[in-house]
Specification:
By secondary structure, the protein is α/β, with parallel strands linked by helices. The longest helix has 23 residues.
Length: 975
């Protein structure tokens, strides 16, 4: 008979426990279960651990593992005994295991819910956050196996391991017995443990991007021996940018004929003598492989054919390269075979602890004086500035870089991710969040791989710096080739609304992105929507006024300076407008003018005067609209870099938003230290005023800044999620478990009306009673039970909630009228069995609305609101918020729809009880947030009266809760 310790597996190999992770220093590791095939790896790993670490693990000198030890540590049943290993390059760098124990500390099986946990980390990898990451993963495994509490015994001198446990954020008990520190902690995630986990995630992922953007050395692999080609172009761009680190050219052809390489244009040996193998290419040391480079290589830029990339990645991994930029094409964008090649590329790079940008990437740029990195195919090197740019398309990357360069804007960093198989926009957001050189982020996204995480990161980033996003492929419904993303059932309009809720400035075109970016990078945020308009063209002023009204701004009457206005007149008028307390921003219109002597005025003079006027009031934004005055745009854009704090600071105590300074992450749990907040670029004497060739473009950019500024003010006071006293959370959980147990369908099921109404009632959501009426007599009996007047409604799917089709008859005052109406319904629409009629008491008159909640597999739980009726549905007039919804968000939700005035007394009608509606929204939000098994709720219609509201119809759908990747341990997206 086998004992439990003799069994290898009581379950199949748990492949879902495998995960790629980013460590504290930005490198990667793979976590996986330990199996019987790992005996040699375990022994090799243990031999590389110091005697001190072994002593801390076993509380005694333990120089080597016995055969019995090796068997014990590699044979697990994956239930009561589990071991995980962190690997790099296929070799162990750390291990963790738990053993289920009973109350006496003896080996046990379920239902015992306590386990002893122990770690061992190779000394060379200590301090990289390996143990903290392993703790997250072993805790998730333990919860899955029914373990609720870990116990750890640690020597007092092992302060690093004690810190791993105490910093994790779990609720703990600590004691000291027999010279050993005993720690006990529950494994249920807490707000603090989740905050710690996310803070560590931010540091690790941000650091992984930082390593790619600030390398000390770069090797370009695939550099041709003749001018031209991708590799040679990148090498030239790196040289011309003045890269501050070591630079190497790599091409395997150099090995075949060093003399030929030397004789090639631009290539020579290091001494200039024939026969030497120390080749230089354009003054850069050239080697036949990365392995031949003696010094460390931090970043490899790969520009070789796709079939050669695996060999190159292996060489880089074995050489200790930290990161890759893969420019090579022929991957996911080329079909099924390419997608398989792309998955293998990611697995291979991560196995060596490397992160990669690409494949099919456009490259990376960092304009910091400490780096001066241009490892990209950009035809024009960008100037240094304060804008961060991320794009998933090389063509769009070229357009954006060219547009920003043409309009005088500078960049801090640029990432052209291509197929973004590994490093994504989420990772770059993590980096920009704490980057002191980036004050505004621009992103072109064709797909969002993890919308739930993106909205979380975007919300946090937007509290510190503006984030402008353009979404490509919005309406095609087709995922761009090369992109592996989780499917979402939400329409684009819903996704856009959720992004705006997170503070994202979502625009439709790359032109609008550049327009908004220029204003946000060079100007302070407006304190309100009031816009002053002045210029030397009355017609252009009127166009600007109309554009402001159309975009929801509040323009002041335009001031016409007449065509004879001089630059000095512009300066005086702008200074006067900026000093007006009733003005929050100013748009200046300028057309060509001619001086009295017949000579055209110099645009540079006007630019100087406008800057001088704006400098006197630095807390208000200024934008210029110019018509056929290209010289003016050049003069304004050439003034300075995009650094916002180049403008004079607002005096202490001044009201309104302050001019932005390099952002510092807000305080939070386990905060990461930030880099030096002050960049090396000296403050400029003058600042940049954005110029636009059309009034509509300037106004649209300003309108986005106004909305973003309002979001920032609202985000400072986000509201709260109310805890209603009449909510029965535990009883609801028990009832949901009972209802799910009755249904064997793993996809879940829609509840019967009685069950749905009962479940909603536990959260204080009362549904007005509706009684079935299969025949006229039953209808009359139901009406007598409820009391007249009543409504007779069909509930057939094709007629449900369609009063416009005649399927709902209201205010039936007596039995005679009820029976007559019943017969009319039958004559018009069909038999009662098809119509499914019900009788319901009349609700007080009001506005018919619809409240829905749904769980989207990619975006998470979403609450939606709109008015009932075909018109609202046809126009798509529905607003959305992510759950959980605060009281402030509930209020903004009902005010977000275009038909919201109907709720507040439009055209003399009585306002309805919007506080009651806000409470209903919050109760639905609480229900879905508290119970992830509730995957769908629909309340339709909800009649909101002058006092109170009535829920007339409701449906609830239950299903086993979907996986929440944002609540589990940190992992990289799988391939």
């Amino acid at each position: 008979m086998q004992t439990p310790s003799d069994q290898q597996d009581r379950h199949d190999y748990p492949s879902h426990w495998e995960a790629d992770v980013v460590l504290r220093d930005g490198g990667t590791a793979r976590i996986r279960p330990i199996t019987t095939e790992d005996a040699d790896r375990l022994v090799s790993f243990y031999e590389q651990v110091s005697d001190e670490s072994k002593y801390y693990r076993f509380f005694a000198p333990y120089p080597r593992l016995s055969a019995k030890d090796v068997r014990r540590f590699t044979h697990h049943d994956q239930v009561d005994r589990v071991g995980l290993a962190a690997t790099v390059g296929g070799e162990f760098i750390a291990t963790v295991r738990y053993d289920r124990i009973d109350e006496r500390g003896m080996a046990a099986s379920a239902p015992a819910d306590e386990a002893e946990v122990a770690f061992l980390v190779q000394d060379a990898h200590q301090g990289r956050g390996v143990a903290s990451t392993l703790l997250e993963h072993i805790a998730a495994v333990a919860r899955e196996r029914g373990i609720r509490r870990f116990v750890a015994e640690v020597l007092p001198a092992n302060t690093k391991m004690i810190k791993v446990f105490t910093d994790a954020g779990y609720q703990q008990k600590r004691s000291f017995e027999d010279g050993v520190v005993r720690l006990e902690f529950d494994l249920e995630p807490t707000d603090r443990s989740l905050a710690v986990q996310r803070a560590r995630e931010q540091r690790a992922e941000g650091r992984s991007v930082q390593r790619l953007l600030t390398p000390g050395s770069v090797a370009v692999i695939g550099v041709g021996r003749t001018p031209g080609g991708v590799g040679r172009s990148v090498l030239r761009n790196l040289k011309e940018a003045g890269f501050t680190g070591r630079l190497y050219a790599v091409n395997s052809a150099f090995a075949n004929d060093a003399k030929d390489a030397k004789g090639t244009e631009g290539a020579k040996d290091a001494e200039g003598t024939e026969g030497s193998e120390n080749i230089e290419l354009d003054g850069v040391p050239a080697h036949r492989s990365v392995a031949a480079i003696e010094e460390p290589v931090d970043l490899a830029v790969i520009a070789v054919p796709a079939h050669r990339v695996p060999q190159v990645v292996t060489e880089c991994g074995e050489r200790g390269v930290q990161g890759l930029v893969v420019l090579s094409a022929g991957y996911g964008e080329s079909g099924a075979e390419g997608r398989g090649r792309q998955r293998e590329l990611v697995r291979q790079a991560r196995s060596y602890g490397m992160r990669l940008i690409g494949p099919n990437a456009f490259g990376v740029i960092n304009t910091s004086p400490q780096a001066r990195l241009n490892a990209s195919l950009a035809p024009e090197p960008p100037a240094r500035g304060r804008i961060g740019l991320f794009t998933q398309s090389g063509a769009i990357g070229i357009a954006l870089l060219s547009g920003l360069h043409r309009r005088g804007a500078g960049l801090s960093t640029f990432v052209g991710s291509g197929n973004r198989a590994d490093v994504s926009g989420n990772d770059v957001l993590q980096y920009w969040y704490e980057d002191p050189d980036t004050d505004i982020a621009l992103m072109y996204l064709e797909t969002i791989g993890n919308p739930r995480k993106f909205t979380r990161l975007a919300r946090r980033a937007a509290t510190a710096k503006p984030l402008v996003v353009v979404q490509g492929a919005r309406h095609s419904g087709i995922t761009p080739t090369g992109h592996a993303v989780q499917a979402t059932r939400l329409p684009h309009a819903t996704v856009s609304a959720l992004l705006r809720q997170a503070g994202v400035i979502r625009v439709d075109t790359v032109t609008e992105m550049v327009d908004a970016g220029l204003l946000l990078a060079g100007q302070p945020l407006p304190s309100g929507p009031r816009v002053g308009i002045l210029g030397n063209s009355e017609s252009l002023g009127l166009l600007t006024y109309d554009a402001c009204v159309a975009d929801g701004l509040r323009p002041l009457p335009p001031r016409d300076l007449t065509t004879g206005a001089t630059p000095a007149d512009f300066r005086a008028a702008l200074a006067e407008a900026l000093s007006d307390d009733g003005c929050d921003a100013v748009i200046v219109n300028a057309i060509p003018w001619v001086r009295e002597d017949g000579v055209s005025a110099d645009p540079e003079t006007l630019a100087t005067e406008l800057r001088a006027a704006a400098a006197g009031c630095p807390a208000k934004p200024v934008a210029v609209v110019h018509v056929e005055l290209g010289g003016l745009a050049d003069a304004l854009s050439a003034a300075t870099s995009t650094r916002p704090d180049a403008r004079p600071k607002t005096p202490t105590g001044a009201t309104g938003p302050q001019p932005r300074v390099p952002a510092v992450a807000p305080a939070g749990p386990d905060p990461a230290p930030t880099a030096a907040a002050e960049p090396a670029e000296p403050p400029a004497e003058q600042y940049r005023i954005p110029a636009y060739p059309a009034a509509e473009r300037a106004v649209r950019a300003l309108a986005e800044a106004v909305k973003y500024a309002q979001w920032r003010r609202d985000a400072a006071e986000p509201g709260k999620v109310h805890a209603y006293d009449d909510i029965d959370e535990s009883g609801t959980a028990e009832r949901i478990a009972e209802l799910l147990a009755k249904d064997d369908d793993p996809r879940g099921a829609t509840l019967a009306p009685a069950d749905a109404h009962e479940l909603l009632g536990r959260y204080g959501i009362r549904v007005r009673q509706a009684l079935p009426a299969p025949d006229p007599d039953a209808a009359a009996e139901a009406a007598r039970t409820i009391g007249y007047p009543v409504a007779l409604k069909t509930t057939a799917p094709h007629l449900r909630h369609r009063a416009d089709l005649g399927g709902v008859r209201l205010d039936l005052a007596d039995e005679e009228q009820l029976r007559r109406t019943y017969q009319e319904l039958i004559d018009t629409f069909g038999k009662p069995a098809e119509l499914r009629p019900v009788v319901q008491g009349m609700a007080p008159r009001g506005v018919d609305t619809v409240v829905r909640a749904v769980i989207d597999p990619a975006a998470g739980a979403v609450l939606s609101f709109g008015l009932a009726g075909a018109a609202s549905e046809l126009l798509g007039d529905t607003a959305h918020r992510l759950i959980p919804v605060t009281d402030r968000e509930a209020g903004s939700l009902i005010r977000s729809i275009r038909t919201a005035p109907l709720l507040f007394g439009w055209r003399g009608s009585a306002p309805v009880d919007t506080p009651a509606l806000e409470e209903l929204l919050q109760r639905v939000s609480r229900l879905v947030d508290d119970h992830p098994e509730v995957v769908g709720v629909s309340l339709e219609p909800v009649v909101v009266a002058r006092r109170g509201l009535s829920v007339l119809g409701a449906s609830v759908r239950l299903a086993p809760p979907p996986a929440r990747d944002d609540l589990g341990p940190r992992t990289l997206p799988g391939y």
